[in-house]
Specification:
There is one protein chain. About 40% of the residues lie in helices and about 10% in strands. It is of the alpha+beta class. It has two domains: about 55 residues; about 40 residues, no CATH class.
Length: about 120
């Protein structure tokens, strides 16, 4: 499950739970008193999570290795080093603008074709 999906799911669960508190006016859960404001706060928290998930930017989540040109998700490589060659990873967005010399090169470095 992606991070965005997790926030959306949690947000909708909080919104539904908040409406349950508001509509049924639960005052006690398992013998413990629950303030009437709890439902409203759950709805507000759920809306905030859904808005956060919708506004998350997904295009900056990919990185590329300048040496072997393999693409990785940022969340799967937290140290920002290529798992294959150990070189630093760069954001994929704008990579060829920063490295125009690699634009026409379709063969990854380190892999040569046989004649």
């Amino acid at each position: 499950m992606s991070r965005r999906t997790g926030f959306l799911l949690a947000g909708f669960i909080f919104i539904a739970g908040g409406f349950l508190f508001v509509r049924t006016r639960f005052d006690y859960i398992h013998g413990y008193p629950v303030p009437c404001l709890a439902g409203t706060l759950m709805i507000i928290l759920g809306i905030a999570e859904v808005l956060y998930a919708v506004m998350m930017k997904g295009d900056n989540r990919l990185t590329i290795c300048a040496t072997c040109r393999d693409v990785f998700e940022t969340l799967k490589v937290p140290d920002r080093k290529c798992p294959k060659c150990g070189a630093d990873l760069e954001p994929l967005k704008g990579f060829y603008d920063r490295h125009p010399e690699l634009r026409g090169d379709t063969e990854p470095r380190g892999r040569k074709q046989d004649p």
